[in-house]
Specification:
This protein is an alpha+beta fold. The protein folds into four domains: 186 residues, no CATH class; 105 residues, PAS domain (Beta-Lactamase); 109 residues, Four Helix Bundle (Hemerythrin (Met), subunit A) (Up-down Bundle); 202 residues, Histidine kinase-like ATPase, C-terminal domain (Heat Shock Protein 90). It is 62% helix and 12% strand. It has 27 helices and twelve strands. α5 runs parallel beside α7 and α16 crosses α22. The longest helix is centred in the first third of the chain and has 30 residues. The N and C termini lie far apart (133 Å).
Amino acid sequence: MTDLTSNQPSLLRRIFGAIVLPKTVSAFENSYLERMNKIAMGFFYAHLPIFLLIAWLNDTDPLLTAILTTAVLLVPALGSRAFTSQRTKSLLFGFTSMCMGGILVHIGQGPVQIEMHFYFFSVLAMLALFANPMTILVAAVTVALHHLVLWYLVPASVFNYAAPLWVVLVHAGFVVLETFAACFIARNFFDNVIGLEKKVEERTVEIRRRNRDMRLVLDNVQQGLVTIDRTGALSAEHSQVLERWFGTYTAGEKLGDYVGRKSADFGTWFALSWESVTDGFLPLEVALEQLPRKVAVGNQHYRFDYQPIVDASGTLEQLMVVVSDVTKDMAQAAAEAMQREILAVFERILNDRTGFVEFYEEAGRLLLASAPGGEANLATTKRHVHTLKGNASLFGIESVAQLCHAYEDTIGEGDTPAMATAYEALRSRWQALADTVDRMLGQRAQDQVTMTGSEYESLLRKVVDGANHAEIARSLAELTLEPTEIRLGRFAEQARALARRLEKGAIEVDVAGNGVRLERDKFAPFWSAFAHVLRNAVDHGIEPPEQRTECGKSEVGHLRLRTLEHGEDIVVELSDDGRGIDWQAVRARAEAMGLPHTTDADLVDALFAPGLSTSTQITDTSGRGVGLSAVREACLALGGSIQTKSEPGRGTVFQFRFPLAVAKETTVGA
């Protein structure tokens, strides 16, 4: 009993909540009920002529019928003026409908009077269209009272036979059953149709709340977030920081055009790459890799990442673009790279101070000679920059090499303002490096004389044997020159480092100076340019280990560096056991450039011509056709000549010959 008692109020509240609608009337409900009330009014007005016709046919007093029907019609007619609530007006129609049913049954006395009761059930069901259970309850109460009262007072007005009480109760039972069903339908109609606007409004409020929360996130996230459709058009939703970085935009603007305001290169690159993303020719992952990833706006640097949004079939629908400010990361990376370069420089100074100082001074000279607008023409400037790039890379100063590469690009394009900008960036980086290097070097050492054990014994023997002073003086003078053994050893170390960087594996480098010494300052330009020959031998000559194995060679590449006196010449030689020179490619390039290409001598000359390269792409190592022309110019400046031998698949030999007379003049100091 306790449980039933405690549950009863809850059940009553649930029943009451199902019958009584919420107090709030939405604009849609009010508009709907206003329309339904007008339709109902017209529907009941149409009853008057029909009822008069039925009364005339049944001879049940048409005049009384007209009076009763008009009296009932006054209820909704006057109520529509007295009440403003459309719900209240609909309650009046519940009462009116059952009164109309009572009149119909009364005037339909005769054989079919009992069938007239179907009117009550039909209209009771139709009242569900008012979407208000109370309208149906009002009608149910009205018809119940009508039957009970008239059955008791005027039974002939209700039944065409002497109906007992249980018959009246059966009629009432059917009314109760239909009332329950109609109330259920009315309430569901209200909740799912009339109340739809409220649900939509609640859903809209929820969406607005979520959008507000999302907007709050987007306004505070420190990454640029936006989506683009298949046309590359930007969506309206985006993080606020995006506009702070690149300016405002309107939804539908293309991403390439938007970012292109700040970086024309990004806009052009994106437009070209986006075509490959949408045409479906390339796999989506591959096509997305072609999109631009970095852009610089002033001193700020940004990285673009792309996340595809695809449908069930894997077709691209949208693309999520995530933009990150990587300025600090790049600055840190640059600082770390600079520290690595400083460490590399420090190690070079410790291991080979003389060699580094020579490179350092030669690099400074090349940098000054490479300034745009100077006395040198563009071809000469390009050779200077290319030489500086190669030497900087060999000494591990990659930042200078990269800036030289960028400067070369502007020289090739002939863009004077861009050349000035690129040169200034190169000069600034070199100056920053030079400030540190100068502190490391401190007071520059005076020229030093070095000799090997065999040279010391030879000089001592001459003194003991009483050689003349001129011969001894000549031997002492030679000691002031640089032993080529040291120079070639330096090149060997650089060749091994370059091979590792180019993934050529470990290579063997044989060095033989054969006691040859050369005057450092006079031959410095040649040695500087000679680095290009070394780089070409490693880059173009030596094959990767797997290719060498396929050709039946040892997977370890081999270089030989040597100097020697040969007859009336001093020879500097570099040989490799690589793939050899592709003379057919040289001939084709020479022909395209309008150079002689008939004889072997023509092909050798073409190989050293400015601008000729058999490489299919430009890299930071080679491909511009500048290096060999620079070494030929340096060789010719010393009165030298070049001999080249190359066999496909066997290797290449470069010999640079200088007159011994020049060497003797330099040696003796005459």
